[in-house]
Amino acid sequence: MKKIFSCILAIIILGAMLSGCSNNDSKEMIKKAKNFSIPHEVSINPTKEDYGILAYNFLHYIQDNYPGRIAGTEKEKEMAVFILSALLNGGYSEKDISIQSFNITEAVPMMDESIKNKFEGGKQSNSSQNIKVVKKGESEKTIVVGAHYDSAGTHGVDDNGSGIAVALENALRMADTQTHYTICYIFFGSEENGMCGSREYVETLSEKEREDIVLMINIDSVLAGDYHYLYGGNVNEHGKVDRAEAVVKAYDIAKKLGLAIQLPPEGNIDYPYPTGQKRSDHAPFNDIGIPYIYFEANNWENGSPIETEKHGLIMHTDKDDLDFIENEYGERAKNTLTDYSTLLYSLLQENDWEQEYK
């Protein structure tokens, strides 16, 4: 989840497949990813495990190795290399993967102004990158699954190690699974600076690519909040909510699966039901008319997003730490990852999104 800063939208575009990529930084990232030794705990076959197990292992690894993934820093790029390595070792080839680099104007997202960054993230640059991997389906029609991998100057396991973990587990689980839709997983860079990665991705889509996207699923901060929410829908020029059918369908599926996942409370004037805040990577997709489902754990019971009743905000504070979250909330982290991982897999098995919801 980001605090908004400006980002330069004059971008170095690397949308071509890696085999044709001429950017030296991207080639170096791929070289590092190929040479990266994936630890056993994050190299297990997810299809042989319950939902959320591999995601939880990923989260522990992120906690221990990638704190302070501040946009434009070495630590953000190290996280990108790990994601690439996990994909290359998990059933995808270089031809399935592409890297899109772009410039940013702010390298360091601020936490609460009263709190100093716990981790600085290493050497800073003015660039970040999106990592995209495509799993071909029977149709060219596409579902985008997105999660940003940068963070504030914390361990960033809630915001957004949790989204990375759920998306990565699912990408590996789906690698050899037949699906009706093509699934495009995008790990966005520089979300905390104003959704720079997702904005650039959307702005560089061709007309056909836009038309082919039937749904965007955004996973952001799904670890620590008191309630497991789904948001969706667009507030139109008349102040009415449209394009909410997809999130209602997702909620119905969650109920049938017996998951502890819900829609946000009704009656919020600022955020009409069932929409949520436009502070994450679904927003650029919604802006061009693409239906979205946004996964987030939060607490809206009092009309504003306090995240937790006990400790208030976890994201963008020094409490965004897996040890703290588990000490304070026990099995919440595991249970949340399990629920969202289960739902994501089920949503991607559906084959009628574009007929009813596009």
From TrEMBL:
Q: Which UniProt keywords apply?
A: Signal
BP GO terms, sorted: proteolysis
Q: Which PANTHER family match?
A: METALLOPEPTIDASE M28 FAMILY MEMBER (PTHR12147), PEPTIDASE M28 DOMAIN-CONTAINING PROTEIN (PTHR12147:SF26)
Pfam families tied to this protein? Peptidase_M28
* GO MF, one annotated term: metalloexopeptidase activity
Per the record, the domain of life is: Bacteria
Q: Which InterPro entries match?
A: M28_fam, Peptidase_M28
Peptidase M28 domain mapped to chain residues: 134-336
Give the residue range of the signal peptide: 1-24
Q: Which residues form a coiled coil?
A: none
What is the protein name given in its UniProt record? Answer: M28 family peptidase
Please give the start and end residues of each transmembrane region. none
